[in-house]
Amino acid sequence: MAPPRSLALALLLCALSASCHASISYPPSAMPAAAPAKDDFLSCLTKSVSPRLLYTKSSPAYGSIWASTVRNLKFDSDKTVKPLYIITPTEAAHIQATVACGRKHGMRVRVRSGGHDYEGLSYRSAKPETFAVVDMSMMRHLSINGRNATAWVDSGAQLGDIYYFTGKYTPRLAFPAGVCSTIGVGGHFSGGGFGMMLRKHGIAVDNVIDAKVVDANGILLDRKSMGEDYFWAIRGGGGESFGIVVSWQLKLVPVPPKVTVFQVYRGLKDGAIDLITKWQQVAPSLPEDLMIRIMAMGDTAMFEALFLGTCKDLLPLMGSRFPELGVKQADCKEMSWVQSTAYIPMGASATVNDLLNRTSNIKAFGKYKSDYVKDPIPKAVWEKIYTWLAKPGAGIMIMDPYGAKISSIPDRATPFPHRQGMLFNIQYVSYWSGEAGSAAPTQWSRDMYAFMEPYVTKNPRQAYVNYRDLDLGVNQVVGDISTYESGRVWGEKYFKCNFERLARIKAKVDPTDYFRNEQSIPPLFK
Ligand SMILES: Cc1cc2nc3c(=O)[nH]c(=O)nc-3n(C[C@H](O)[C@H](O)[C@H](O)COP(=O)(O)OP(=O)(O)OC[C@H]3O[C@@H](n4cnc5c(N)ncnc54)[C@H](O)[C@@H]3O)c2cc1C
Ligand SMILES: *[C@@H]1O[C@H](CO)[C@@H](O)[C@H](O)[C@H]1NC(C)=O
Ligand SMILES: *[C@@H]1O[C@H](CO)[C@@H](O)[C@H](O)[C@H]1NC(C)=O
């Protein structure tokens, strides 16, 4: 079957950001009483940071710097609550000074690395608020230590930088993280980070061995000086909550010199529903070298695979474990691992140089939601799901199978709790192209989510923090501190029982709740 709009789809998937949910109400106490002493903040900051790294709303470049990684047109609007200042640090000392001056003069900061947050929380506020943005995009240094297969990478790098430079260093090393090259390291690692090697090597933070973070006192800490609780929290506990992570040390992982990719399309007429029904049980129990994910859209399912081996070894495995899919020699594309990181999201014409490209010419509006599935969904329900995928305004469903390494790590080992017994993750992606077109896709996304409730995890209904969704709830602020009770509503969906431990660590490292946004971890003091 011909690949329907495959390239367009792939490009869209790496170019979209999400929309916000407009109807959020806040208690009056959450509104800022008065603007902080902003001139004092600025004069404090200019003692340590060169004025050429500071932008105020009247700077000519303010607009282009702010918009540089806003990929969601919905937020590129006059109605968006934007920062008073943008700071573009080039070294850790600039971040330390920003936090120290911000604490002293009552200026909150939000941090942005790659700007992919689906709700835009790294560069806008959902309610009226005075704040500054620390934009990490000038800090993207990466150094590889081949002798012990480790690397240090700054938060402002993008995933494509890690993939490109690791692949260039040696075709035998790699790093397991997300699928789109423009995703920022800082936000992605802060929420966990998974991609096509999750079954072999787990998620990104399972392979992070050290980090440098600026805490709420403006002090620069490493793993040793921050301690193991703090180090646990920053590896997946969600962005913004615990400080500004400057850089991360990675354990690189071995890969064979050749890997195999396939993308096969099966329509409803080709038995797509039977295939998906079987995939639910097959994909999470395959050998760890093979990941087969699904994109369900319209009347089609795209089965997309990365196999850490050759086509010659893949075909007999497919023949014995999933013969119904009918994967043939002609479907196999063999390439280096680094080439696969360009090929999978950007298509056959992409080159490894495209991994370094930080600009994207496709902009759109989007709404994203996520679910987790532990019990196979019956075939009759998949038939209904496909009637949903045919409705006006329908988005797509991306399904990533778990099992093997990601599921072998205990739920409490990192803040990311979606591991043992998990069959797969679902991401619902709805997108549209103009301000007026939002109604049908937004409605579809909420209706679809309501329909899926009986078939996904319950108590709590789990969700992935990197697929940020303000529909799940937002913090209430009382006495200038986000409340634990309001945070639990969304927080246990993202973190299950780990939420409580995160909140206790927050109380230790940031008791005044300086680092906060609509879904930051609130402090728990008792
Ligand atoms: C096109 C696209 C594809 C995606 N594909 C995947 C995928 O394959 N796998 C996956 O797991 N996720 C995926 N995601 C989700 C992605 O992992 C998250 O949006 C992630 O948070 C983005 O990181 P960022 O640095 O680009 O975002 P930002 O918007 O800069 O940051 C996100 C959050 O982290 C905070 N933050 C940013 N930098 C720091 C820092 N240095 N220290 C502390 N907090 C920080 C921000 O304040 C914000 O709260 C995708 C998103 C998009 C838009
Ligand atoms: C790897 O080597 C570097 C430089 O020699 C060192 O800083 C780092 O701690 C080593 N890492 C491990 C995991 O041994
Ligand atoms: C980077 O990507 C943009 C958008 O796709 C494209 O217009 C531009 O030519 C690319 N730049 C390079 C150097 O390839």
TrEMBL record:
Keyword Flavoprotein: yes
Top-level taxonomic group: Eukaryota
Domain FAD-binding PCMH-type span(s) in chain numbering: 79-255
Signal peptide span: 1-22
Essential cofactor(s): FAD
A GO molecular-function descriptor: oxidoreductase activity
Keyword tags: FAD, Flavoprotein, Glycoprotein, Signal
Similarity comment: family membership: Belongs to the oxygen-dependent FAD-linked oxidoreductase family.
Protein name: FAD-binding PCMH-type domain-containing protein
Gene source species: Miscanthus lutarioriparius
